[in-house]
# Entry
Amino acid sequence: MIKSKFQKNKAYVTIVVLILMMVLLAIVYLYSDALLSELAIARNNKGAQAAFSLAEAGVQEAVWRIKYEPTARDTFLNSTIGTTTFYHDPALLANGSYTVTIQNSTQGVATVTAIGSYKIGTLRTARREIKVGIAQAGWEPSYLYDGAIFAAGGAGESIADIDISFASVNIYNGSLLSNRDITLKFMATVNVEKTVEAARNFTNTGPWFWLSELNCNCQILDDGDPTTPQCSDHPGCSVLTNVPKKNIPPVNFDSGPNSYKSQAIAQGQYFAKEKDFLDLIPAWSSKTFNGVVYIDAPLTLKYGRNITMNGVIAASGSINIEWGGLQINPPPGGGASGVLTQKDFIAGILGDFGGTGLVYSGDRTQFDTSVAQPINLTGGVISRRTWVTGFRAVNITLDSQVIDIVLGPSTETPVIETNHWEEEY
# Structure
């Protein structure tokens, strides 16, 4: 009887102990789960903050690249559809990384998408995405004039800044501008759709049977508007002389990371010697280059070498097309195009030249036009002095935007606006 009662009490105690243990286990489980949840939340918050900081770092690097890295800057400023992508893994933190895309919507306007990632343990990754609209602020044109040919002044008072003889020169959408003299001689024919301005003198030299013909302030091509007559309807014009001198805009040949020399080095197209460049173009052959080519020496094209330059070809010395050809075009997707030299640019009597871009000479631009093929250039010519001689036509259509792209913007202040961000774990 007593034993049976003891056994019943023992069973009750066992049940009570089991219930208490279950309650305690439940409490421990709930407490542990709460702790683990708090730890997970804290860990995720840390990962999210780290991922967001990494994405912000990607945006800051994108801004730096747009301002100082030649390729990214050129794409941002000059392309309508260009894309620049870069990433770092790891970045800043051992478990961190970021990937950035700069996508242009038009010239000087792009969306920067930066994705920051932070690994949480071995199975989870915090990820933050930031999208930033970025645009060029305070964009001012670098070329403030309407000179399709602009001569800033040569060395020596006896050298005319713009000297045209025998040739037929047609200037569309622009003017002839000189900081000293403009001289026409030996039956040249010059048609200019805007104005002719010389800081000193305009001269049509020679006896009456050698005098040149100048037509300006008229449309070379008939647009059907009687208020803008063709040159044949409006022969002759008054020429502006003794006008104020104008400043020649600079070109950054070799100073700093944004120079054309630095861009060529970054693209693997820098040549210390003329021979190193010409070895790529055998005689009587053609070759196409894209981007920026820089020759740290004079360059003479001869023996039938023909170059198509989709971008900019620049030289520290003179560039002479003696017997060959040079065609300049904007690069694929848009950007700077032209031929730039710190000395002379000469298209010789057997030289073929044309395209879309800027001709920029630190001293003289000379077109010797004795062969039948005309010179057709859309963009402009900026130099210390310009000579045109011979019997073929030189047709230059002013395009200020083409010139501005080569010269670069006068201001470089980006505006950044954060549109939104997204996150996922």
Remarks:
- The chain has a mean pLDDT of 82.
